[in-house]
């Protein structure tokens, strides 16, 4: 019998299961527009990955997506044709392999071998040779050495160099530099590349931080309602979270909602409005706070499925709070109906790049420009909805100047019945809040998302 008989062929290795799951999640994000956190959590559940396997899969997915632009610069120097000519499936495999070689403690031989095996299983034997050759070339340099091969040199174009070294699109770095200045820019970019801790919020009146600490969390740094799950873990295992008495919410989001609740006003204080409520984290905190004043929250959300998320977040909060499906720019209530109004407007999300690794490559400057009219209309509607003497919190999860103070200034320039107030005293104990009167939080300074707040008084 010939040695080439199928009976004498060694069986092909099966691809590593965890790498296979990571690759499929990455494909959902890059090819189908999925969100990494949602796709990954679903895959981990369905594939029953936990412990070290879940942690390894998470780093493969988030790291590959976070450093995608940088890896593409290296791959462009390692492949003989333009990356645009590669099949997207092949490019994602190369990115996944590059991440293991340059930013994970994976043996080079093992990383290349496993990726060749995965390539063979996913897209065929024919292209496994290219993956082998390219990844071997990548393995010949360290991350720092690869960064030094990609122009421009730091001394000639610092921001261009940072775009490669810190894995952010140049336009994002330019916006951050405009908002922050040069001092701390690199620290901010580094903070964006570190996965955030899981932060919980104890909704007052139905839970407290002591309960979350007893369940294994530690008290937060700034917010009186915050607790942190050190080392991660599933928040749903905590009874307060499972029942809706607590939730997962960044400490920066808690701070801006609490600032609105604590701003001084005279007279009535029982009618609060969340103008852009979905998915409802801030709504739940505000509802819990207004409930302690025997008041009511009205939450407005234009999309039905997101309105259902708001209702779910409010399920454990006492009181007759309302969830309306509608357009916040076209109020169905009389002007001046509310004492406090939150306008947490749709934005680019550049302040949450830590938790959304794919967002930095998915967003464009055009997105910021397209959102601007909606942001201005929502803020204008929020001011009109507040009664004289009432307050409005304009909030974005973005530090981009065109989404923050520029919007506030444009709207206030058209009105003579509203004015900015100094919001900094509403963040007691929180340092580095800038010159005011608005507040910008930062990942590298505060350990929060880059939340922005402008407090506006209706006159």
UniProtKB/TrEMBL annotation:
Gene3D superfamilies annotated for this entry?
NusB-like (1.10.940.10), Vaccinia Virus protein VP39 (3.40.50.150)
Q: Which organism is it from?
A: Kribbella capetownensis
Which UniProt key words apply to this protein?
Methyltransferase, RNA-binding, S-adenosyl-L-methionine, Transferase
One GO biological process this protein is involved in is: regulation of DNA-templated transcription
Name under which the protein is recorded? rRNA cytosine-C5-methyltransferase
Active-site residues (renumbered): 397
**Family (UniProt):** Belongs to the class I-like SAM-binding methyltransferase superfamily. RsmB/NOP family.
**Occurrences of domain SAM-dependent MTase RsmB/NOP-type (ranges):** 172-459
